[in-house]
Amino acid sequence: MYPLLISGTSPILPNVISKKNECQAKTFTALSKTIKKINMHTKRPLAPKLLNKLDDYLLLRQPETWSARTHLVLYYGLLFMAVLAGLCFIVPNDARGSTPIGYWIGFTSIISIIAIIGWMIFLLRFNVFKRFGNITALGRLRTFFLYAFSIATILLFIYVPPAVESIRANIAYGDNEIVNDINAINTKLCQLEYDSLQHDWNRDTFLVVNKIQTEAERYNGDTMIPVTHSVYKVIDTAEFNKRKKGLDSMVKIGDNLYEQYECPNYNFLKPSGYGFFNYEPFESKGILSNVNLFDNVLRNYKKPDKALVSKELQVLLSKYRYEPNEHGYEYESDYNSNPSFVDRMLKNYKIRSVETSFEHIINRKFYFNQKNWAWQIRFLVYFTLGITLLVFIFRHSTTKTFFLSLLAAVLLTIVSSITLAFTTGRSESGVFVWGIFYAVLFAAISFTVFASRKRTVIAGISINLFVLMVTFIPLIIVSYYYSLIRWGSYYDTTQLTYVPFDYAAMYRNIFIAEIAGFILLIILLPTLIHKLYRRWYSLPQE
Amino acid sequence: MAVRRMLDICLDSSDNQLLINAILWSRLFRKHEKENAANPLPDEFFKQADTLLNQLHNTNNSAAAQQQMLINVTNISKTYSKGNFSLHPISLALKTSEVMGVVGENGNGKTTLLRCLAGQLALDSGNIAYIKLKQPDFYDIKHHVAFIPQRIPKWYGLLKDNLHFSASLAGVTGEQNELMVAFMLERLNLTDYAHLTWAQISSGYRTRFELARILLQKPSLLILDEPLANLDINAQQTILTDLRYMAKSVYHPMGIILSSQQLHEVEKVADTVLLIKKGSCLFRTGDETQSTQGFALELETTADRNVLVEILGDDNVQVQYNGGFYTITSTAYSVNKIITDLLNKDVPVTYFRDITHSTKRYF
To answer: Does residue B64 form part of some domain?
Structure first.
């Protein structure tokens, strides 16, 4: 039990006395280790020695970091994610079938909630902010980041199953393979059904007038449609330029008279995707358009070996055909007594089932495409920020003040909403005005703690709510600005001009405001917020 | 006691190596107490004690704690906004190495006074000057003054982790942290309990662990509210003696203010004792103007009150029965004379105590 005491006849002191001068340092280290062996007994399940040593090291030298338990969250989080990823890889999951990702996300969300609760239980054991110890301003900022890092690590659990599913789909089906197979199926369908397909392009004639149309001319009722004459439609130059971009073909048949042509649909197999995981990013990868198919197959049609093409088509279709994807009443011919040829053809080849398979595969492949990242990162960042702020203010205030702060937030929201509901005007701007008003109010009340000699609940609530709002102040201001701009940027009837609202600039500025909010929080945490909490919590009570 | 004092002296020597030796030597003692308490201590123990003493002798560290003024309290008062209680203006002063006791009946303002001194309650009037702090804010004050309430908040996690954590937060880091925690555990005889949790120890040990935790933070002023409430008689004596020696530590001298119902025990170790009654300071020891009002003693006997009155039969002597014992006061006769008279008349005296200078006479 006591190594130095029970080993040898003269366990401790002779060393110190007889060889004091020559090995004093060694003796001190040895004895210090003995103390350590007796004092430090950190053992955690599944934890390597290094982690236990790190835990001891942080406890003795970095109490703020140690109490945040980020090192443990990181280690056990990674361990769990590795196990989860392994499990996701093992579980049978055909990329062609509908994804079970919803169940996985539900499962990992529950695990994340449990993990956050578990982390908080450990976190709440040791509160560095209520011990009146040596807490520096930067220490407070570091602790905030450690909380955020821990929460983000736990929330990352939710991303593991989609990531594994996406990786599996990408391994099973390459991008080029998907593109080539879609093109091949559409081409072969065109080759096989050439005789029955529509070969004539759709045609439309229109006259372009060189002026901006009045509102009466432009609009017919609620819907914006071109004013139709008996032979041609009259459109303005703006509409003309817009049409030009999307046309398959256009022929000028007079000074201002044009005929447009639209190629019939030959993309019989066109997986569209749904929800957030859409098909757009895939379209740029070489999918043949209707015009391409027309040019390749129909324009100079050569009669193929139908038996061979049919066989190849069946091989391709069976590659993607997946039994659970086949449902009843998915073709128009199922419920329409007079279906078109294309509908009958689609049913004949069971294209919908194949299309669904493609959609499932493509959705899986593009869970984490560029377009989806924006909202996925925002979800992670704002969820992390929200929980971190709640934990942070809970750690800094009394239990009573914390829950009263939440209650106050809810009550103020209700009161503000009712007030807005009963006031006329632009409610969108009103919301932001209320937000700015509350931010100023909470900041003003918070500042009173510097002059106060007593700790009051009101001041505590104000500080808490101010801290909760800080990150969003630039966003509220920018949103308020745009709520005003948007109202003044519609059709100008006096000048007969339409000033389009610059959504791109708005999204860019909102993004800048979001970043500014985070920077503001990072600046205020070790400065103003540090001083506010330090002062408020140490004040005497009534 | 000798072992504990050896630990104190080794701590005062400011020699870490010596302190480690003392800790290990103390553990040897505790191991023996645990396993072979019936047998005499082995020679090895005494040999090592001699060695330690020689080492101490060679350190030539003869520094003594210099007394410094810690806190100067001038006419502080406090009235709760809800409730009828008021703490009337009280003034006091305390230096390092001094122990001040605050006694009084329940609900008379002891805890209020202590919480005011600890900066926990806002004052209605008066001033508290924390002499060692220059222009302090309340955070500095609470870092400087440690307060141990009667109901100690629950600790979470391992007890040893709490001690390391508190020391670390107070700036005692690395090996010094390990050493000081080991010292504190050994000094308060808590080593065997360090790996337990709060729920696994008795309320007496909780008080001692809280004391260890607070001492690791090295406060200049330690305020304890009823620290003896959960302790057995032996533990009470031990804690009070320990507090007395800790206050006078050369390594870290501090002032201690404690409240208690154990008047005699507190009076034994405290330099000054305040008696608080109905929110006012009724009496403080060392105040000659009040203590010379006469002699007083407590007496426990099987004799009837009439017998005592008959023996002492003088108008200058008052005998009061307090349910279990008598309080005898006199302006003319000394305690020695009264007790001699009683013994000469064969009155069976099972217990007596001179309370002339004690706060007890005001209860």
So the answer is: no
